[in-house]
Amino acid sequence: MGDYKALIETSSNFEELRLSWWDRTFSPINPGSIRGSILTFCSNAIGAGLLSLAYAVKLAGIIPGVCMLVLGCFIYRFYYRVVVRAQDKTQQFTFIGMIQSMFGETSRRVLEICLCMALFGFLCAFQALSAQYLTDIFLIFSSEFDPERVRKVVLLAISLFIHTPLVIPKRLSSLRYASAICIFSILYIALVLVVQTPSYLSQQTPEIRFFKLDSSVLDALNLTLFAYDACTAIPMIYEELHNRSFRRMSKVIDRSLMLSAVLYISIGLMGYISLGEATPELITDRYYYWGELDWWMIVAKFMIASTLVAAISINMNPLRLSIQQMVFGIQFQHNDLNFYLITYFCLYASTSIAILVPKAIVYFKFLGGIFVIPVAVLVPGLLYLKLPGPLLNKILVSSVTLSLSLVGLYSACSTIL
Fold it and tell me: Cβ–Cβ contacts within 10 Å for residue 131, how many?
């Protein structure tokens, strides 16, 4: 059976190699293809968290900030591979199923709570940020309205008329073209920052720090790790991947993280160099020197808001699945009533919280420390202990995992206090 699977994979790879570079790159994106999986992966990893990367570089200084962005890429490259190996071993294609198979029922319950809270928090953060950007754009043309009232109306309108139908698809691959919009939006922001940085430097000499040695460095590490997270989507992407194998999924992981790292370093470094210590929490709120309106960033805000609408739909899939497994068990039977009740409860509850808590950076720090790092770092670290490997490697991985988890908890607690 193993030889047969290897033969199928080899044949598939041979067919891919026979195609020209143009055909491989620009042919239609099929569900479960490597390109489709990369787009879905990136749309989960490359999200609103990257808007705070210039601020993270400001907190740490240029050299530690860039090192953290590179380090985050390699850390997640290792942990994502661990998740894939655990899936191959257990043949479970959800986080919850893997944990129950390898650690038992109690561990599964703890993870379910963390996972559901993290994914629910993402919905709140994405809605809050998209509403903020769309409100900013609306007020350019109608400044006489109260901004807070406009923000609430925008949130409710988008939730009711856009998110309500978009959160229904059950497969991540059905949103692969929306994922492409996400990548294009981030490429645009990176290009704007790179092109405009020389012009910013010609207008002023910003105060730039190369090193900082204080507690803010821990917040910077938390923000950079948060930006790379797509751990909850890995099992579903792997399940939907055609000719599924560790080798093919490794290609998806490597190419996605490489693209993410290039964009993150460009945005974090250029965003900080152009403004120095005046860098805002979100780079899209930067000061503009050449007039009242920064139309380049206004376009970026609209594109990001559109991207976040797609991201909300994409993140609803793992949230809904986690809740279904937590309530009805791993091998639950699909029920349309439960499906729609869970979906729309999560959507409208997250909309309500986004109305009450509008500041995006609060979500990034809190979610990153309390839920994202434990799920994206601690769980793969524990899975690694169950997989075959040298004892020394397991001790090293455990030490790194524990250290990163403590950094996340510290950052989240400092945000609350």
Answer: 26
> Using CB atoms within 10 A of its CB, is residue 384 exposed (0-12), middle (13-18) or buried (19+)?
buried
| Helices of type H across 241-359 | 246-275, 295-328, 336-356
**DSSP label at 32?**
T
For residues 49 and 226, the answer to whether their CB atoms sit within 8 Å is: yes
How confident is the model over 60-75, as pLDDT tens digits?
A: 999 999 999 999 899 9
Instruction: Give 46's contacts (C-beta < 8 A, 6+ positions apart).
Output: 182, 183, 186, 227, 259, 260, 263
Q: Are the beta carbons of 375 and 113 closer than 8 angstroms?
A: no
Q: What is the mean pLDDT of residues 214-225?
A: 82
- How far is it, in rounded angstroms, from Cα 156 to Cα 164? 11
Give the integer Cα–Cα distance in Å for 375 and 236. 16
Q: How far apart are CA 59 and CA 220, in angstroms?
A: 6
Q: Which amino acid is at 409?
A: L
pLDDT of 312 higher than 60: yes
Q: Give the amino acid at 195.
A: V
> What is the tens place of the pLDDT at every residue in 315-372?
788 788 878 878 887 777 888 888 899 999 999 999 999 998 887 667 766 666 666 6
Nearest CA among 233, 226, 248 for reference residue 371: 226
**Alpha carbon of 324 to those of 36, 231, 328: distances in Å?**
26, 19, 6
The label of the residue with tokens 């754009």 reads 137
d(CA 375, CA 228) in angstroms, rounded, equals: 13
Backbone conformation region of residue 276, classed left if phi is above 0, alpha if psi is from -120 to 50, else beta: left
Q: Are 162 and 309 in contact (CB under 8 A)?
A: yes
Element (H, E) at 6: helix 2-18
3-state SS assignment for residue 286: coil
User: Given pLDDT bands bounded at 50, 70 and 90, which one contains residue 14?
Assistant: very low
